[in-house]
Amino acid sequence: MTEQDTNPLFGKLDEVVRAVVKTGKLTPKLGSFWQGKKRLTYADMFCGIGGFHEAAKQLDMDCVFACDIDDEARRVYQHNYHIQPAADIARLRIKDIPDFDVLFAGFPCQPFSIIGNRAGFEDVRGTLFFELAKILKAKQPRAFVLENVKQLVSHNHGQTLKRILEVLRKDLGYTVDYKILNALNFGLPQKRERVLIVGFKGDVKGFEWPDKKVPMKPLSQILESNPDPRYFVSERIRRARHEAHTAKVTPSIWHENKAGNISSHPFSCALRAGASHNYLLVNGERRLTTREMLRLQGFPDTFEIISNGSQVRRQAGNAVPVPMVKSIIERVLHAEKSEAKRDSKAA
Ligand SMILES: C[S@@+](CC[C@H](N)C(=O)[O-])C[C@H]1O[C@@H](n2cnc3c(N)ncnc32)[C@H](O)[C@@H]1O
């Protein structure tokens, strides 16, 4: 039997698209884990310029609280999302934070060396993760999605992540899983590997990490056609790059590593907040524009740029890739209530 025989929508793509356009946006259906709720609220901790917010907005979630210590990031967030984030997480008063269903946090990759050998909650005191854990303990959201650099997984021979997971599982009572994901597999032409940690209050089933790769948007759709001449490097730098390296594809993004070795790909290496100015060059001749950096992180062109070039570079380098977290949040929304307890009684 062919797909044509079994699938009533086979060959009717146009009709389906027209129907979707007519009915407007498709609101994601929430799984049974969410107890019949129609829309979910969230808090956006360490919000930066709003990578999580952009993703959650596309999934019809309502932001009730955000915080970030960086003045300029807060200004950009307020400008684009009309919510004024609070500042330092360590200075928040729990009573000033409204209740919410889900917590999002791309917590900073500060040195985790502070985390010692004592077990449990006390062990993470003094870290920004501790501030997050305090909020989770007080507010008890039904779920969370955390993001960090992939090095968190191997840091301190795995002990740091182990401690974090222990706090989330044992002290706070969440069912937790984590995975390293790459923005390249979510349609973005950027190799950016991050660890995502997802937690649910109590038992849950039906949450699965994405296994299908979304085809990468070609660089040509990210790059601007007439970039301002100020983005072009000097003739001396351009010549030095082209003497050291020849690209196999065009357009490509040339990456210079710390040892000075140059490679080029039809995608960008990870945008970094504090990297040197010319470590990524389009075709070995110009820096990325601010809009291109935001596109590489999946921000739509409706996102307004109000900061100067070096601030946007830092903001984009810190941000979370929008389609990557959107895909994870979508799966969180579809989570189902676990029948585990009923099954064990029946057995
Ligand atoms: C990895 S970035 C997260 C970026 C965000 N996910 C986004 O998409 O833009 C970490 C953020 O934590 C913020 N941060 C650092 N220390 C903080 C603190 N004590 N309280 C609140 N925010 C803080 C930084 O300013 C930075 O924007």
CATH superfamily of the largest domain: Vaccinia Virus protein VP39
Question: Which distinct ligands sit in these coordinates?
Answer: S-adenosylmethionine
Q: Into which percentage range does the β-strand content fall?
A: 15-25%
Classify the secondary structure makeup into a structural class.
Answer: alpha/beta
In angstroms, what separates the terminal alpha carbons? 40 Å
Total number of helices:
12
Overall shape: it is globular
Number of domains: 2
**Low-pLDDT stretches:** 13-24, 342-347
Rg, rounded, reads 22 Å
Whole-number mean pLDDT: 88
β-strand number: 13
The name CATH uses for the topology of the largest domain is: Rossmann fold
Order of helices and strands: HHEHEHEHEHHEEEEHEEEEHHHEH
CATH class of the largest domain: Alpha Beta
In the CATH hierarchy, what is the architecture of the largest domain at level 2? Answer: 3-Layer(aba) Sandwich
Helix content: 25-40%
